[in-house]
Amino acid sequence: MKPIDLNEKTKSSFLKTVNSDTPTIILYHASWCGHCQAFQPTWAAVKAQLSKETGISVVEVEHTHMNHLPASIAQVTGFPTIMILRSGKPVSEYAGDRSLADVVSFAKKHASKDKAKAKPKPKPSAKPNDKKQKALKK
Q1: pLDDT band at 96, cuts 50/70/90?
Q2: Can you give the three-state secondary structure of the chain, one letter per residue?
Q3: pTM value surpassing 0.90
Q4: Which site among 49, 83, 116, 132 is 20 to 30 Å from 126 CA-CA?
């Protein structure tokens, strides 16, 4: 999936993406923030790697565009902040090392949880267990 940077022109597609059932990793950043500036090369690599994979959307929001966000996902207390969103709601905030491997692993963990939830549950056996049935009758 192609990464989306929130601005006036992309607002509609951005909101459609974050409100979908697909897990979305989002970076909140500020141009004046030194930590954000240092993280940008790593985030570019995260975007490049995750945009090649299915099942994870990648978006980012510069602090000057946060007024375009719904209140449910605009509550950020510091920059940079990385979160996983689903259906327009925060699922998990990232608190680990800002390395490529760790951020990608965080995103994939949330995508794999969705795949596990999507697997059908096995059907119960049609044959009752005789030992359990006898124990229940006693």
Answers
A1: very high
A2: CCCEECCCCCHHHHHHHHCCCCCEEEEEECCCCHHHHHHHHHHHHHHHHHHCCCCCEEEEEEHHHHHHCCHHHCCCCCCCEEEEEECCEEEEECCCCCCHHHHHHHHHHHHHHHHHHHCCCCCCCCCCCHHHHHHHHC
A3: no
A4: 116
